[in-house]
Amino acid sequence: MYEAEEALSTEIGIKSRLFDQTLELNATVYKVDFDNFQLNLFDGTQISTANTGEAHSTGLEIDFQWLPPVPWLTLQGSVGFNKTRYGDFPCGPTTWDDRDALPECGEDAPPSQDLTGKRLAFAPAESASITPTVRLPLWPAREIGAMFAVDIIYQGDHFLDPDLDEKTYQEATTKINARLAISPLNKLWAVILNAKNLTQQKERLLVLDAQQQGGNYVAVTHPDETLYSIDFRYNFGFLD
């Protein structure tokens, strides 16, 4: 059995428009304190939920949209810094090759490790993105234009399992996506060419160590090759 998780969130932020309304800049500082923080744990056969006690998250998020002094360019971006830590958690889950239970966890307790003050899984300390977008007339007589955008997305390193097994460590990644859209000014239709993960980054979403089968891991991954696609869109009905 496990108890309900509670969180107390405190944040302060600012929204601003600068340089003759050409720059929209927002920033938020936050702090979240969890009580009875819930963890989903996998023991090799089933997933269970357990409470860890306290956990804490503090951070800063900044996002912006800028219209430079050129009519065809727009810049959007964001940056985030996040620090997450367990509170007092002496009986945390441990890796498959650690079969010892700490004395304070009880004689019949499962294998454990002291995770007090350690970072939480699935929580990169840094993240950032920037998207330059170019819009140009393609066929002015038909009022058809083109839009080209590039997404540069950075995600810091993090762990992919609550036991912080080194085999579940995900290194920082920088992905680049691109898209080219062609459409009329009234946006009645659009043809969009997409290219995802041009840098062919290897990124895992989840890694579980099968403790009943020591040394075996199950991983869920993103495709590490570049994916190309074409979207066709059409708006039915009346447009203003």
TrEMBL record:
Please give, as recorded in its UniProt entry, the membrane topology of this protein.
Multi-pass membrane protein
Location, primary (coarse class) = membrane
Where in or outside the cell it occurs: the entry states: Cell outer membrane
The TonB-dependent receptor-like beta-barrel domain is annotated at 3-198
The entry's protein name is: TonB-dependent receptor
Give the originating organism.
Spongiibacter thalassae
Tell me if DNA-binding is a UniProt keyword of this record. no
Q: Which InterPro entries match?
A: Beta-barrel_TonB, Beta-barrel_TonB_sf, TonB-dep_rcpt-like
Q: Output the Pfam families linked to this UniProt entry.
A: TonB_dep_Rec_b-barrel (PF00593)
Q: Sorted alphabetically, which keywords does the UniProt record give? A: Cell outer membrane, Ion transport, Iron, Iron transport, Membrane, Receptor, TonB box, Transmembrane, Transmembrane beta strand, Transport
